[in-house]
Amino acid sequence: MDERLLDEILATDKRIRYVGIVNDKLENLMVKARAGLELILDKCEAEEKLVMLAGPIILGTLEKFSDKLGNLVCAGARFKRLSLIFLKVDGMNIVISTDPVPPYSIMKKLENKLLTIVEK
Description:
120 residues
């Protein structure tokens, strides 16, 4: 994994605030925030609780339904102060925070971009 992936995800939409990626073994943590961003969550909360714990737990739980519903593409959560997008791509758990907007339009952009990147 390399930092270019983080940059490409951040460049997908100006409303993306933060990206964190960890593999299925909970190793190789990579994180990056949008330049000049004032973080809502502190660094520890973002890296340890959101990327290392919440992402894999949420994605792992939802994947348990894949035998009946098909492969999980992405999941979103909207809070008053920000939205979260959870994606599972090629063995990577990706957690993205965005400005507090409905996450669907950003999810669709990310899905298209990440599938293109992974297929390269």
